[in-house]
Specification:
Elements (H helix, E strand, L loop, with lengths): L7 E3 L13 E3 L2 E3 L7 H6 L5 H9 L3 H4 L4 E5 L2 H18 L7 H17 L2 E2 L13 E4 L6 E8 L16 E7 L2 E11 L3 E6 L10 E4 L4
Parallel strand pairs: 4-10
Antiparallel strand pairs: 1-11, 2-3, 2-9, 4-5, 6-7, 7-8, 8-9, 9-10
Helix pairs in contact: 2-5
Length: about 220
């Protein structure tokens, strides 16, 4: 088995509201969960995934994302930037004349990136009716690595809780190797599978590891 190196990603707050069972959550509102396009085409239409899609194409990972019946817990370009920045810091510390860019990732760690993408893919769908408050463990498409998924109520106003109504928003959480983050968008049904978008890493609760995403 290829070895994946872990990279700490930081979570940030997002205002999330309560939703109907069949809706998907995005930025605090709810929307029709069905989109008439493949998962990868949906990602291509959103600037938040420009770099991710470019790397997916150049590393030959497109078929992984568009495989029928899978769920993709997608990192955003902010995760890619965090990955590049962390790698760049390590490279410069070893040799100040060098740098690490997206091109470096594709050239030297393309297979590692592809392997890492596999830990964000599960070969089944996750309608809200199948999710539970307690964590459930599922195999990812990377051999030997499982993910824990839960759908939990949160009593925090920054997540959309309103004390006046007493409504508790519920959020999908994704956990790999004891590192956990939540989904800023969840429950999108595409023509090929389902899409969940992981929360951007921008410093909320700085220092708390929440996502396992790395390269060889």
């Amino acid at each position: 088995m290829k070895k994946i190196l872990g990279l700490t990603i930081l979570a940030a707050g997002l205002f999330l509201g309560a939703c109907k069972k069949d809706d998907y959550i995005i930025g605090g509102g709810t929307h029709n969960p069905k989109v008439d396009m493949s998962t990868l085409d949906y990602l291509r239409k959103n600037p938040l995934f420009d770099t991710l899609c470019m790397i997916i194409d150049k590393t030959g990972s497109a078929d992984l994302i568009n495989e029928a019946g899978i769920s993709f817990f997608a990192p955003t370009d902010y995760h890619i930037k965090a990955l590049i920045d962390a790698r760049h810091t390590r490279v410069v510390a070893a040799d100040a004349r060098k740098q690490y860019t997206v091109d470096s990732l594709i050239k030297y760690h393309g297979q590692g990136f592809k392997d890492s993408i596999r830990i964000h893919i599960l070969k089944r769908s996750f309608p809200y009716s199948a999710l539970k408050e307690e964590r459930q463990t599922f195999a990812t498409t990377f051999p030997g690595v499982s993910a824990d998924i839960s759908y939990r109520e949160v009593k925090k106003e920054e997540y959309g809780y309103n004390p006046a109504t007493g409504i508790f928003p519920r959020i999908v959480y994704y956990r790999i190797k004891n590192l956990e983050t939540y989904c800023q968008t969840s429950g999108i049904i595409t023509n090929t599978g389902m899409l969940f978008v992981l929360q951007n890493p921008d410093g909320f609760e700085a220092g708390k590891p929440t996502l396992y995403f790395g390269i060889n």
